[in-house]
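Section 5: illustrative case.
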């Protein structure tokens, strides 16, 4: 069985996320998603609109996803690859060259997939007027 691993926040689940998960699953038999916890997002300077448990439930409902695990730190990636016997780690191509993923090449294959043009969580938040959510607060402005 070929195991695939990807990482992300997966906030405001959209077509780009689904497309990434589908393409990742096509690379193997079993897709593991390491979902950034609310605490880890805080360390990264992000605030998700939905909390971790809600985002986890949404991912678990997607047919391409076999397992959702928490992403708590930048440094857990090698341990994840070893613990879950990962063959391929997949990320969006905006992460290409990032040392957190490049160092995994000693343990598994690393594949960067092109992002879906024209769609992103940040763009959706901006289009919906959720600017405070982009800037680290998940409050809808009073207009």
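Designed sequence:
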């Amino acid at each position: 069985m070929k195991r695939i691993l990807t990482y992300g926040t997966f906030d405001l689940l959209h077509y780009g996320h689904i497309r990434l998960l589908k393409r990742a699953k096509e690379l193997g038999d079993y897709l593991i998603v390491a979902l950034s916890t609310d605490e880890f997002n805080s360390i990264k300077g992000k605030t998700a609109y939905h909390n971790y448990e809600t985002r986890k439930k949404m991912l678990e409902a997607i047919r391409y996803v076999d397992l959702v695990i928490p992403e708590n730190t930048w440094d857990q990636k090698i341990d994840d690859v070893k613990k879950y016997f990962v063959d391929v780690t997949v990320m969006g191509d905006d992460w290409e060259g990032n040392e957190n993923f490049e160092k995994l090449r000693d343990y598994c294959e690393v594949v960067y997939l092109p992002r879906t043009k024209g769609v992103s969580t940040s763009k959706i938040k901006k289009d919906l007027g959720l600017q405070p959510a982009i800037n680290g607060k998940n409050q809808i402005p009073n207009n």
